[in-house]
Amino acid sequence: MIPYGKQQLDSDDIAAVTAVLQSAWLTQGPQVPAFEQAISVLCGAKHAVAVNSATSALHIACLALDVGPGDLVWTSAISFVASANCALYCGATVDFVDIELNTGNMCVNALEAKLLIAKKTNTLPKVVIPVHFAGQPCNMAKIAQLAAEYGFKVIEDASHAIGAQYQGKAVGSCHYADICIFSFHPVKIITSGEGGMALTNQSDVARKMQLLRSHGITSETTEFNEESHGPWYYQQQLLGFNYRMTDLQAALGLSQSHKLSQFVTKRNKLAQQYQKLLAPFNRIMPLQVQADCYSSYHLFVVRLTGLSKTHHKACIEHLRGKDIIGHLHYIPIYLHPFYQQQGFQPGYCEQAERYYQQAVTLPLYPGLTLKQQSHIVQVLTDFLSNDL
Ligand SMILES: *Cc1c(COP(=O)(O)O)cnc(C)c1O
């Protein structure tokens, strides 16, 4: 069976985790700050806050930007549900911006048009969460310009995009955003088992996220609002959570981070091979990577044009029937029953729904071979020539 994605672990990774098991600290030890330091250096951001998932990172990122009841948060219609749920955790309202068909990313023209209307109706968002879909950075320069013009904050959901670059700078530098979050789930670019991280250049935002990930508790004497009662003393200053990453996870993440550029280079090479193999088939259209972007290629997504809904489904079933786990990332978030219960209806984002009828994710991970890729393309194109 060829899965759509999988982790690549080696003996260094196993040794790093074993060393933690033999140490004094399973959690709240030295590995977490070491992992944070490594990622902040790799990305060129001042602060990095490790947590137990990207979902948690999105939640505390929203809270650190003071998202609460009465606020609006906008995200991309095509993403994993966590990109939207984080706003609801804070009691805010979520809304969706349509995508660009050829990249799968939030469409900046749709964003601008929606902002113009929102300004007139006094419903501007407090935060916009662009998602670097499949590993390709969004048009962040334009989003930052709109953020300045309309007064919203920006959280990049870069769950797919650690190791990617935008205008020559690493995603995570927060050059065009307030906060950038990563996921270290095993299907993502590097893994810590489960895990996430929030990066920022703003020290007050970083500190708030550090407090929120651990119950809102501080042990820093200088932060107490009264004199310390003694060496045991700490204060809860906010309503936080237990979103901490363990040292086991951080050791794995740190070890994996040394291989980040190697993994991303390999993913780009595999993507190029797919593009070459698919080039003769003009109805199979891989997502396009823009000139100022270097994708981390978390996913290799193609759009199949001219297929009916039934044939599109049959195509993914056909791949699976041949032990190739084709996938579909993602159903437009607002079409989930939970979101339809909140009042969203089919037809809300036209491009997102067109995309959902065309997209297929082909397997992509560093261990995939050229031979397997040729086989995948063969199975796919056989289906397309037979079943129309
Ligand atoms: C994977 C993913 C998340 C959530 O990541 P976890 O670490 O599993 O919580 C959020 N957003 C996007 C776009 C993702 O792909």
What topology does this entry show?
Blueprint: H1 11-21, H2 31-43, E1 47-51, H3 54-64, E2 72-76, H4 82-89, E3 93-97, H5 108-120, E4 127-129, H6 140-150, E5 153-157, E6 165-166, E7 169-170, E8 179-183, E9 196-200, H7 203-213, E10 217-218, E11 235-236, H8 247-257, H9 260-278, E12 284-286, E13 293-294, E14 300-304, H10 309-321, H11 337-341, H12 350-358, E15 359-362, H13 370-386
Parallel strand pairs: 2-3, 2-4, 4-5, 5-8
Antiparallel strand pairs: 1-9, 6-7, 6-13, 8-9, 10-11, 12-14, 14-15
Helix pairs in contact: 1-8, 2-8, 3-4, 3-7, 5-6, 9-13
Bound molecules: pyridoxal-5'-phosphate.
Number of strand elements: 15
Euclidean distance between termini CA atoms: 26 Å
Widest sheet: strand ordering? 1-9-8-5-4-2-3
- For the record, what CATH class of the largest domain applies? Alpha Beta
- Fill in the CATH topology of the largest domain: Aspartate Aminotransferase, domain 2
Strand content: 5-15%
* Helix count, DSSP H or I runs of 4 or more residues: 13
CATH architecture of the largest domain: 3-Layer(aba) Sandwich
- What helical percentage do the residues reach? 25-40%
What summary fits the major beta sheet? 7 strands, mixed
